[in-house]
């Protein structure tokens, strides 16, 4: 593969697109018309003789090789070099083959565009370019299983996206160059790490490098490649930066890299990531930085009992307790409780699984058995902290807290028995959710959300009787 020759600012989103396509599970719609097709689509400007004359000098240079006009159909067809495209056609770059493909737009639009062409007007060129942020949020939505299109929020988002117009000349040039040179993910990551690691890069450049890097390391292989050339350690060291933003975005990258990636998780613990993450959570830092650090901590601890052990040894439960009791960071409480709930149930499942399968990997179970999580939680006051969080007004926060109370019940039962406030709160919530569940039922929802919350309240009250 030919090394990259595009400036990084341009390559990043394109490389991103390529990566997105290669992660074959991912199809996001960048066009209103084809919700299931992933492609960069724009209404190509007219390249026919008539309008060509009106184009600028630069565009004429691009069009000098135009020999024939391509006739698009309803299906995507590859565009040959030198072929011109009628106005109003859809053009996309097939990122797997590198070919440009063309098809007809909707019939009426096509005709409208032809009309515009006859009047000799310069056509409205609707070229949306997407920033990596836009694609990431699309990816996030995709992961959540929500529709990319449709909601009010999406419309607003799309309107925002539309503001990122770029001239067609620029876009075209980019596409043409992309046909020849495509950078591998590894090359991109090396370039981004070098950018981040270089003392001559500005803070903005470093943040931008981390921001782009985060996308790549979602892929397991990429995260392991990052490890292989020392990039992971560079990012881990970024947690030591005096710049809160560097800490924040380093944690952002690490959170993605750790996620269900044991090899990377092991190296990160060896590389001191756990300690650095806890130091950030325990010291005065902006909330945004702590949020991402907490996220990175979660993905480092999940399914990794060794890291969980180290976390307990390093006083992680105290750090998290202080975090949720601090006025400025108490909004993180639900996330913290969710993490603790996940760790408790993970250990439980490991035990159950070992029992069911008559133990296929004793080592794993052995590891989990050394994570003395529940006694630590009780010791560090998490029984009470969790009970108090039931006062939160949001349903989903309460849902998490109720779940966690259930998971802590065996450990905290005597404390909860002696807590009249907890019973009162639960009784009040019971009344509230009975009303909501009744409404839900009226609307024909017989397996509704509130009914579920009500069921967990019932079972907690039963345990406390
Ligand atoms: C990062 O920079 C340091 C010093 O500037 C250098 O020693 C190290 O090799 C660099 N790491 C990577 C992975 O490029
Ligand atoms: C990073 O910070 C930790 C504590 O905050 C310190 O122990 C460690 O030496 C620092 N590492 C580097 C490479 O500066």
From TrEMBL:
Q: Which UniProt keywords apply?
A: Endoplasmic reticulum, Glycoprotein, Protein transport, Signal, Translocation, Transport
Q: Name one GO cellular component term.
A: endoplasmic reticulum lumen
Occurrences of domain Nucleotide exchange factor Fes1 (ranges): 153-226
* MF (Gene Ontology): adenyl-nucleotide exchange factor activity; identical protein binding
Q: Output the Pfam families linked to this UniProt entry.
A: Fes1
Signal peptide: which range, if any? 1-31
Gene Ontology biological process terms from the UniProt entry: protein transport
> Transport: present as a keyword of the record?
yes
**Entry's localization field:** Endoplasmic reticulum lumen
Subunit comment for this entry?
Interacts with HSPA5.
User: In which family does this protein belong, per the annotation?
Assistant: Belongs to the SIL1 family.
Provide the protein name: Nucleotide exchange factor SIL1
- Organism of origin is Sciurus vulgaris
Tell me the name of the encoding gene: SIL1
